[in-house]
Amino acid sequence: xxxxxxxxxxxxxxxxxxxxxxxxxxxxxxxxxxxxxxxxxxxxxxxxxxxxxxxxxxxxxxxxxxxxxxxxxxxxxxxxxxxxxxxxxxxxxxxxxxxxxxxxxxxxxxxxxxxxxxxxxxxxxxxxxxxxxxxxxxxxxxxxxxxxxxxxxxxxxxxxxxxxxxxxxxxxxxxxxxxxxxxxxxxxxxxxxxxxxxxxxxxxxxxxxxxxxxxxxxxxxxxxxxxxxxxxxxxxxxxxxxxxxxxxxxxxxxxxxxxxxxxxxxxxxxxxxxxxxxxxxxxxxxxxxxxxxxxxxxxxxxxxxxxxxxxxxxxxxxxxxxxxxxxxxxxxxxxxxxxxxxxxxxxxxxxxxxxxxxxxxxxxxxxxxxxxxxxxxxxxxxxxxxxxxxxxxxxxxxxxxxxxxxxxxxxxxxxxxxxxxxxxxxxxxxxxxxxxxxxxxxxxxxxxxxxxxxxxxxxxxxxxxxxxxxxxxxxxxxxxxxxxxxxxxxxxxxxxxxxxxxxxxxxxxxxxxxxxxxxxxxxxxxxxxxxxxxxxxxxxxxxxxxxxxxxxxxxxxxxxxxxxxxxxxxxxxxxxxxxxxxxxxxxxxxxxxxxxxxxxxxxxxxxxxxxxxxxxxxxxxxxxxxxxxxxxxxxxxxxxxxxxxxxxxxxxxxxxxxxxxxxxxxxxxxxxxxxx
Length: 676
Known about the structure:
The protein is α/β, with parallel strands linked by helices. α1 crosses α14 (347-353), α20 packs across α23 and α23 packs across α25. The strands form three sheets. Strands 4, 5, 6, 7, 8 and 10 form a six-stranded mixed beta sheet that branches. It contains 29 helices and 15 strands.
């Protein structure tokens, strides 16, 4: 009943906000906070979040520009890209783990310790031991909720298959027997999208082959780029082996390699599968989408193996609210940001958000009346013998993305577990402590060249490891953004590319990266331009092995000396290419992404370059190009203005009229009358 009451209070405050805004005093603070969170889409707490924001607006007079989305790797990358381009929000709800380290190291968010100098009570309702620390020992995120991960079970399916409900002593061997009985009965034993959410099974598979005490220690590579054969590596390799075994037995969803999480969750919710391994957030999803089936669903312990007990589970505090340096340094926004985070992490709001989840509050809210599914989760959490964080949170996003995308390759036999873990750890952050290597990417449409380089070159002698290969410029550019290599060997005469534009794009976006060109294109002028753009070596095919090794020595030497400043010449080159492309294609619907793809850079980097070199935004530049084209066309009296609007790529005549008058100072009609 307490939870219902709190929700009603928030709803009443939200309604009050609607009435108040119209009658707000004229001297109310004219401040709007831009807030990015993961409470988007069908998040179980979306409604609670909206109510809390409305209450905050009603109480303070401040406004919130809500930019919430669903949390996934793409969303994380977009958030990080916003920080890189200076487009970060005022307040961010994000992961308080390795994912946050880039903007923490760049001092783009403010530590709680600094905020408390001006606001001593900030996050004062939180238990200090529960605030997640950053690698520098400071605390930046103020958490709302923690999480747990358990096995969701469809009791109706188990009953139909004659399988007992898993208990606190559930073992792996029994789980395999149960899955076989379920499969023989015609059901899917495990609803899972290995294409999207393989990480749940990975975490417990590793925990099953290790221990809670060592779970948060990831594997490392030695100086030769080989996986160190320690306990961590053993647990990861054995865990991937267990996932492969489940796949080969046919226990995962039939379309596990192609279906998304939404489809496999629906399979479970609609009674087509027996088990679903997921987190605390999924309970809210089932409550909202399958209220009529809640009596059939329950939460149980994940089957145990080795020394792990089934009551040892994965969970903790992993997300929280950050205040960015941008908002903190703005006198008008500082107070608004602090009051927003304080409101959204207050005892009453956290109580409304929490059902069975962990909280960081000093005074944990009492649990109200729960539905059967959430009550089973609360019972399971009450009986937990240990709660361990996710080891995936201890590795870089590049390493994590590589690992989980390769799980499909492991289960289908296209890659060994050893290869998958080694490839992931080669991406795990910068060189430090001798445990990581310089990452190398090879790009060539001649696969014999790629395979030969990968096999013959003694990469370990130069403290290097091949982190990936690609057969085209487009694949290579995508791989570079994912892997962020230190070194690239590439051809520049492949079917889908302008080689010089690709080189300029890579050097501009990744100035610290070292590039050697391998090509059969014998053109001295071309080679000169490539070197001017920052290529370390320009080698003609067939290259001698001593030339390859000399290039490697030169590139690693430069990296060791920390040479990585952006060359203004490459930025100029890219902008010239972008402008030329826009002048040729302004008549069609043209986006920043279209131009960025042509220039082999990210849209955020291109936007930054255009602002720097042209002193205007991309869309201002595009509009100026269209206005100049329109001025030429207006001198032809046979063309109607509506036709000209379409010919220059605009779809809205009124908008074009505003753009033209702003740029030229007179209307299009007036301009025509002057010229014709």
